[in-house]
Amino acid sequence: MIDPNGEQLGIMPVGKAIDQAVEFGLDLVEVAPLAKPPVCRIMNFGKFKYMQSKRGQQARRRQRQILVKEVKLRPKTDRHDFEFKLRHVRRFLLAGNKAKVTVMFRGRELAHTEIAQAKLASMADQVADIALVEMGAKLEGRNMSLILTPNHEVLKKLSQRPKVTAEGEEADVEAAAELEEDMDLAVDADYDAELGEGEEGEGEEDDEDDEGEDDDEGEDDDEGADLESDELAGDLEEQDEEV
Description:
By secondary structure, the chain is α+β, with helices and mostly antiparallel strands. 59% of the residues lie in helices and 17% in strands. It is elongated, with a radius of gyration of 49 Å.
């Protein structure tokens, strides 16, 4: 018999143990039924069940279910599709899951298993930095498979790398915004300078055009005066002939 404070009360009859629990206002719980004699404790049974459920939840949370993710290839898979599948395999391994790479044969492709072996070896080599080969290339029917398992030591080191804090990201964003603002101001200044030069050039052209127009008008006036004097001289000559 154990009281709520954890002190031993010794061996006693069941009736007396129940009376003790009633005095404490708690429950009498048999915590070790297989012991001889059985062990009982005075406690709050509802709280005891709640704590048991919480401990079970924490244990399940700490457990990680490792899955086997599979990607499938063909002997004729080209380089682009191979790299696409490779990115999937790396993502599975970084997530802590195993990756199964399978090359499927069709028809007479089964006569060229060396192509599949080369593809699987290339896949294993390109993920060797984060993965280990759990099962080598093995032919099963018309499929040849390879199983890769994550290298947990490497993944642990990768997870311990320092991450960029939110403050650092905000500082980078502010610096980028200031730089962009300075660039905009510089562009505006260059544009204003070019616009000012263009207006000065247009003003000079307008002045030249005005001077040219004045010269043309002066020449036209001189030509008109010469024509009028010639006409007057012609009229005088005609009058002299008539006389």
